[in-house]
Amino acid sequence: LALIQDRLVQREFLQDHSFPQTPFASVKDHATLTAAAQHVTFPAILKKRRAGYDGKGQIRVTGVDHLNEAWRELKEVPSVLEAVAPFKMELSVVLARSLQGDIQLYPLAENAHRQNILHTTRVPARVADTIRLRAEELAVSLSEALDYCGVMAVELFLLEDDTLLINEIAPRPHNSGHFTFGACVTSQFEQHLRAICGLPLGDTSLMHPVVMVNLLGDLWRNGPPKWDRLLAHPQVRLHLYGKTHAAPGRKMGHFLLIADNPDQSYQQAEGLLQSMMDAGSQEKDVLIKNPAKEPFQKQSRPLETPA
Questions:
Q1: Res 56: pLDDT
Q2: What pLDDT score was predicted for residue 293?
Q3: At what angle do helices 64-73 and 30-39 cross, to 10 degrees?
Q4: What is the mean pLDDT of each run of 10 residues along the chain (307 residues)?
Q5: Domain 87-196, CATH 3.30.470.20 — does that match?
Q6: How far apart, in Å, are the Cα atoms of 51 and each of 79, 95, 135, 167?
Q7: Which CATH superfamily is domain 210-289 in?
Q8: What integer pLDDT is reported at residue 134 of this predicted model?
Q9: CB of 227 within 8 A of CB of 233?
Q10: How many CB atoms lie within 10 A of CB 305?
Q11: N or C: which end of the chain has fewer CB within 10 A?
Q12: Rounded CA gap, 52 and 75, in Å?
């Protein structure tokens, strides 16, 4: 865990074990900042070594001048400069490794991000079996090299020439694995408990193709979303996290859309999300026309009433 918490230590571990990844360089002072600019091609991303997630603590840079500005913006804390990978698809492998070293893999997931936050996950990923097998081999080899126990996710970039690069390691149940809770025989949460408690690992089979869509706090901008639009779909499963404060970009929940046709379900899922966003915009119009109507107080009450 200590290894993975530090981006530089993580990158150096991958390098020492010959795992494929994008070029990187350490930045800890002005001298190493200058050296990093010569080692890593632009565009690149300057990332804090610690405490970054969902795009926080990192800045995309286009050249040397911008790099100096970005490092000042990050308060000149120890960082890592990473070359931007020209990927055509983002993938993730979620797996579980037990205390005894047994491993169970979940189906390969295909991810799409918006503003550095995971937006959708579709399973199974639309890749050839040869790519799927290579992704799984990388993830298994990495879990063994780490002597890891529990559920972990390995985020990958698929390049135009079908090369796979490791982007990040997440030593925990992962957002891109939320599809397992509803679409697989054993969820990643149950699997994590099985692994760390020394119990037999569960079946990871995918029962149905599935699309997962994250629900961000932006949907709450004019009050709680109207869930009836979503729940009217017979193949939707809604999961809210019980957070009491909605903020733009904050993950408040997600929904799964399960269907036999993955392409159709993806389009339907996007359409359902858009319909909720449109409903929120209409509610804003009502509030403007009827100012006496009480607006949503984001911190005044929980989003869900406990049973």
A1: 81
A2: 42
A3: 140
A4: 88 98 96 95 95 82 94 95 98 98 98 96 98 99 98 98 97 98 98 98 98 97 90 96 94 94 90 88 47 40 37
A5: yes
A6: 11, 23, 26, 16
A7: ATP-grasp fold, B domain (3.30.470.20)
A8: 99
A9: no
A10: 7
A11: C
A12: 14
Q: Judge whether 91 and 187 are in contact, CB under 8 Å.
A: no
Report pLDDT for 259: 82
CATH superfamily assigned to domain 23-83: ATP-grasp fold, A domain (3.30.1490.20)
Q: 23-83 and 210-289: same fold? A: no
Considering the entire predicted model, what is its pTM?
Answer: 0.88
Question: Are the beta carbons of 217 and 225 closer than 8 angstroms?
Answer: no
184 and 205 in contact (C-beta within 8 Å)? yes
Residue for token pair 């995918």: 206
Rg of the Cα atoms in the chain = 21
Question: Would you mind telling me the total number of residues written for the chain in this entry?
Answer: 307
Query: Tokens 């996950």 identify what position?
Result: 121
